[in-house]
Amino acid sequence: MTPRRRISQWSRRAGLCLGAAVMVLWSLAPIYWSFLTSITPPGGLVSSGLRLWPEAATTEHFAKLFGATSVSQGNEVQSVWPQFSAAFANSLITSGLATVVTVILAAFGAWAFVRLSFPGKNVIFIAVVATLAIPAYTVMIPLYRLMIAAGLIDTYAGVTLIYVSAFLPLALWLMRSVYQSMPLSLEEAAWLDGASKLRAFVQVVLPLAGPGLVACAILTFLSAWGQFMVPLVFSPTLATKPLTVLIPEFVTRNYVDYGLMNAAGMVAIVPPMILVLFLNRFLVQGLMAGAGK
Amino acid sequence: MAVLARFLPSREARLGLTLILPVALIMGGLVFLPLLATLIDSLFRIAPMKPGTPFVGLKNYADLMGDAKVTTAWVNTAAYVVMTVVIETVGGLAMALLLNAVTVGRRWLLAIMVLPWCLPPVVNAIIWMWIYNPAYGPLNGLLMTVGLIDGPQVWFNDRGTGLFLVSLVHAWRMMPLTAIILFAALQSIPAELYEAARLDGAGALKRLRQITLPLIAPGLTIALSQSTVFAVNLFDEAWVLNGVSMDTRSVIIQVYVTAFQNLKFSAGMALSVLAMVVSLAVSALYVLRVYRETRFE
């Protein structure tokens, strides 16, 4: 290797490292800053200047979230824990239900679209996938009246159904590409052994589709977890109100409690963080398959 | 029996229809019926505060044309589209090229990069709201340390700055999606092409212009159209950062305010139909491409 080539390779590597550092900083710095705020005492927030760690870290904002009683500016105020815990549970329940229902419907539906022939198949598939291009708010007003008429406003069933209708098209699209990439011969072998089509699917194909199903589940869960406008309309009370709607409400009329808001935000990003930490491979594969085709 | 069998669906068709039934019911009942209702109801006057629901034809649409707030909202949304699409595409391409070049620890770089997209938009907006805070936010601190500004700025006092800052938050969240789409496209380019170009003496910039960009053009189209559609639908970030302020009110916020705060349902529906038409027109390009490339057996 010539010295010149070596220098150019070394500078290329340095450039890549610099680029990677900038990207990591861009992605993580805002989140880190929010975390920092959530452990800084209210007095420390006022002092200007950038710090990488607060002078005296505190858990008081988290204590305010999780505590039975709460102190704000010297006055004892009502604890937010009952609201916060209810909203956290609501977020988990609605996102979880939406994920389970969407993945099950997509797992079976997409296979039917790929492997079975029945009347109206192509029309239905195109119509369903085309709804990806229809913005959610266009159907929201009639949906609101429909949900009121059906008595489903502010119920888990109502919110879950809306989420499923919003996330099913992408899930079907994803699962379809998963099944299409599997050789038909797998199923044919099971048919020869006398298994019915459905049975061959459940016993042979479904286990192999695991990674696709996981990707589908992650994408659906993350989308549902982050929803704001749908629950803003369909979850008016704490019966189903999720964290995303509750947290902005911490902006009280005369005082914005940034420590509390950031602490609540940090709790709200724990589930997505866990998914990214442990299942990022499936997530990225799913995104690439969903967006690239 | 044989005659009868011809009219009854086969076993396979029955199984297929059974599996599709829940999908069709949910999508039909919760998307297609409401969509039809939106289209029809936007031609009537439907407002809970007013008696009766008379047919008014295109009056709702005509009223929107003359409404100054609606016009402002469209201008704001147009500004969001331009700014977010430029930021996301330039930044996303840079990220994709970087990821494509990195070999060590790529999986974790990908995970870190995709993180902003995974967080709830509302939480992102709150994180940035605090960064933009006039009194304590690090944006003022940073710019003052560097010497770009003399004193703390109240960023949302200026409409242009406000629009840019909302766009930045949205772009921070959506950039990973563009990056991943472009990264997927980059991965499909054979390395030999670059090897050959390098032997021919083509520089890095020339390789980017003559090999990379043409070959990722399909991915770029998809990335551009999805970022445009998401920008047209921008709601969460502007809502959390600056509420209903006219300075940063997007078309979708205008829909929400019209329908659910002013309770003018049909006017909101008419505006949402217009926003949908814009979204559809943009994604038509994308959808057409997708269907051309997909064969239905």
**Pair of chains with the largest interface and how many residues each contributes:** A-B, 93 and 99 residues
What overall form of chain B do the CA principal axes indicate? Answer: globular
CATH architecture of chain B: Orthogonal Bundle
SSE string of chain B, helix = H, strand = E? Answer: HHHHHHHHHHHHHH
Helix content of chain B: over 70%
Query: What oligomeric state is this?
Result: heterodimer
Secondary-structure content class of chain A: mainly alpha
Label the structural class of chain B: mainly alpha
Per the CATH scheme, the topology name of chain B is MetI-like fold
How much is the average pLDDT of chain B? 87
Largest sheet: number of strands, sense, barrel closure of chain B = none
Number of H/I helices of chain B: 14
Shape of chain A: flat
Overall average residue pLDDT of chain A: 86
What is the helix tally of chain A?
Answer: 14
CATH homology group of chain B: MetI-like
Q: How much helicity do the residues of chain A have?
A: over 70%
Structural notes for this entry:
The complex is a heterodimer of chains A (293) and B (297). Chain A is mainly alpha-helical. Chain A is built from 14 helices and 2 strands, in the order αααββααααααααααα. Chain A has a two-stranded antiparallel sheet with strand order 1-2. Helices cover 72% and strands 2% of the residues of chain A. With 297 residues, chain B is mainly alpha-helical. Chain B has a single domain (58-293), classed as MetI-like fold, CATH 1.10.3720. Helices cover 76% and strands 0% of the residues of chain B. Classes of the chains: A mainly alpha (293), B mainly alpha (297). Chains A and B meet through helix 1, helix 4, helix 5, helix 6 and helix 7 of A and helix 2, helix 4, helix 5, helix 6 and helix 7 of B.
